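Hi all, posting the design record for the shared folder.

TITLE: backbone redesign
STEP: 1 of 1
STRUCTURE INPUT:
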């Protein structure tokens, strides 16, 4: 399988740069790895004669496969080239290779599928497209364990790497030891970390470092991870119902979008569960979300806290969103130590990381005051806010919490 894929990708990459610069001059191939392929479509970003990005689609009517050659350029010089193999309907991406502006392949990736379901493994290939460097699991089973007890905090994100022991031991479970989290993207019980919205070959692993910070500042919680339902945001209603049924008191949501319609189901479900406290990211677009709303941060929900990132001196962090009405508090969330998807220690910044800090504070308050619900938790958190140190008009409604991890 890998050998044949490698031959096809190498043959397609060898068409560069002519296939990108003069696709109209290409005829159908009659022999070799590309036999039966012919140019089906050319898409440009920018005028055709001065395109900045171009995609050339080659299709094979007999095999049902499609090849996409993509290129970016500055002026007349190619900067980056990609070759991607998929089925013709583009419902199953199979492999990709990345090349530089000189058209030489740097590395490749292949998706392995388990039956008729989604991809099960991501194979990393060296530049020869034959040597396997690493293999990543994409949808492994959740390891067995026991319920840890503690305040239940749901996290709605790209999932988590529950193969890491520090995550697995805090997963919320039923009496049979089965994890209660769920993948509302793929609709299975394996919310494994990976946002493939931009590329199935280069998934964004956002949820694990967020969860690592949450567990660091509230180590006694019961973690309930959900992979958000990108294909159908209407599933957010079912997700919130499931979180409530599993005993969640706090819901951490370091995500958002500009389309308010995406969040209709969430808004209705969140309003119906006024006992749950939703801690939501303000986003990282460097803008005032009072004027240019982001959702769910822009929703008017009494049981929601919208948080953004500040530096250690109480100044809004560069790139973080603000809003004197829409955003409640700032907390320091720059250059924080986290554990990434691989289990390696690193640093992360942004309003996404303000979310686990405030959610952890809410969880510790809930543990100390079991009868408190969203209203009491929100009131206690906002009472900790002080005026920020920066000058000018207020950037957030309540102020700055200098150290949300301090319970002294």
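Okay, here is what came back for every position:
SEQUENCE:
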């Amino acid at each position: 399988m890998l050998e044949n894929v490698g031959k096809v990708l190498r043959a397609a990459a060898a068409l560069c740069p002519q296939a990108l610069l003069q696709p109209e001059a290409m005829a159908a191939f009659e022999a070799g790895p590309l036999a039966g392929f012919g140019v089906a479509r050319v898409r440009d970003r920018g005028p055709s004669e001065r395109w900045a990005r171009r995609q050339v689609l080659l299709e094979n009517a007999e095999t049902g496969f499609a090849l996409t050659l993509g290129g970016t350029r500055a002026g007349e010089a190619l900067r980056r080239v990609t070759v991607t193999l998929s089925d013709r309907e583009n419902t199953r991406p199979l492999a990709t290779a990345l090349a530089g502006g000189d058209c030489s392949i740097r590395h490749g990736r292949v998706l392995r599928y388990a039956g008729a379901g989604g991809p099960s493994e991501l194979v990393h290939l060296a530049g020869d497209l034959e040597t396997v460097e690493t293999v990543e699991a994409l949808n492994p089973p959740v390891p067995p364990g026991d319920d840890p007890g503690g305040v239940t905090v749901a996290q709605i994100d790209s999932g988590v790497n529950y193969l890491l022991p520090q995550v697995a031991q805090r997963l919320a479970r039923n009496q049979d030891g089965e994890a209660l989290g769920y993948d509302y993207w793929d609709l299975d019980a394996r919310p494994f970390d990976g946002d493939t919205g931009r590329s199935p070959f280069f998934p964004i692993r956002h949820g694990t470092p967020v969860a690592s910070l949450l567990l660091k500042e509230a180590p006694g919680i019961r973690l309930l991870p959900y992979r958000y339902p990108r294909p159908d945001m209407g599933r957010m209603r079912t997700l919130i119902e499931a979180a409530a049924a599993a005993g969640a008191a706090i819901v951490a949501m370091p995500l958002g979008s500009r389309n308010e319609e995406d969040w209709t189901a969430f808004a209705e479900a969140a309003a119906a569960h006024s006992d749950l406290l939703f801690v939501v990211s303000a986003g990282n677009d460097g803008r005032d979300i009072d004027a240019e709303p982001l959702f769910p941060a822009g929703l008017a929900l009494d049981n929601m806290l919208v948080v953004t990132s500040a530096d250690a001196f109480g100044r809004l962090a560069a790139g973080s969103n603000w809003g004197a009405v829409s955003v409640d508090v700032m907390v320091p969330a720059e250059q924080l130590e986290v554990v990434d998807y691989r289990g390696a220690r690193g640093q992360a910044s942004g309003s996404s990381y303000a979310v686990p800090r405030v959610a952890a504070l809410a969880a510790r308050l809930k543990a100390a005051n079991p009868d408190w619900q969203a209203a009491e938790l929100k009131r206690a958190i906002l009472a900790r806010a002080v005026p920020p140190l920066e000058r000018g008009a207020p950037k957030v409604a309540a102020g700055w919490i200098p150290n949300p991890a301090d319970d002294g």
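COMMENT: The chain is about 20% helix and 25% strand.
Let me know if anyone wants the other runs.
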